[in-house]
């Protein structure tokens, strides 16, 4: 798996600056298995040789059986802590959580927020209450958190601080992770999760509406800036034992805010300039906030008419032409994904984030360049355009050379689509 899925990734092939990949050694394991599923030999090797640990393995699906999240995100983290507790050379342990572990609060400081019960009791109550996260008892236990993922991360944070505060531990909380700003290439992305997937569906003309507060800050952080930040944090934790940070937010809303409306508008401009050759209908209009009953009704009508009915119509045409039906299935998956995102696109949080810049601003200019992670220097317009182009290049696998052809195609699609709407209106 190391060679086939990781080292062959474009992360390494797009920008290979003589990387010493031969130094990477893989060990077999499973974060949800007892003892991480490590063999005795691998465990002894790690205990004897490792000095810096980055723990980011987790289930990042937002919904699902709570017991699965506890097994992977809580017990898995506990197993990592137990392993690290035995390491003879350990200098830094970086645990990657999420800025939304305490999203029931609208202002979140760089500290661990204690649960009503300790972590062990919370786990016991969660497992005895049942798997239904919509039950009254479970909602009370989750203390306002919207899903199993954020709840499991809050439990894990409490677990590591309760039992392993003697370790050189720092908890890092990124906000919404988005495609790369620089490395391995501007806009690089390899999955359709989160913002990239939503923008992709919009750029294809499939998505026409989503619950978004266009006036709220979109707290986004590019994946390569997170990676660089983690390296810097790991170095600082090991090199400055007397100045260790307990919690560090990797967020953008305070230092370099951009609203959802502005970010989506920037992305739409890029999609107009370089449309996808696979676009099925024209882009939706500029996004507007769904404020009040009128906005809500407009959203629901658009969702059912322009998403659901359109999907059935397209599948009917595909069937008549002898092709496999797919649009209804895509639309259902899109709605499920949007339901997950909408809690985070319709609200706004304030994440205090001075701890990282206390570290970053003491780096040399050369290290700041090599480990680019200063969100204050990000131009959101340029980034949004590159993000869209990244989804076009790396998710849709479309070369920039077909942009002119795509623009011609969308001209005809727009003409026929508008004629179709005109006929329906009659």
UniProtKB/TrEMBL annotation:
Q: Which residues are listed as membrane-spanning?
A: 304-323
What's a single GO CC term here?
peroxisome
Report the source organism.
Oppiella nova
- UniProt-listed CDD domains: FAR-N_SDR_e (cd05236), FAR_C (cd09071)
Q: What is its EC number?
A: 1.2.1.84
The UniProt similarity line reads:
Belongs to the fatty acyl-CoA reductase family.
**Lineage start:** Eukaryota, Metazoa, Ecdysozoa, Arthropoda, Chelicerata
InterPro entries per the UniProt record, alphabetical:
FAR, FAR_C, FAR_NAD-bd, NAD(P)-bd_dom_sf
Q: Which reaction does it catalyse?
A: a long-chain fatty acyl-CoA + 2 NADPH + 2 H(+) = a long-chain primary fatty alcohol + 2 NADP(+) + CoA
The EC class name is: oxidoreductase
Q: Which domain of life is it from?
A: Eukaryota
Can you name this protein?
A: Fatty acyl-CoA reductase
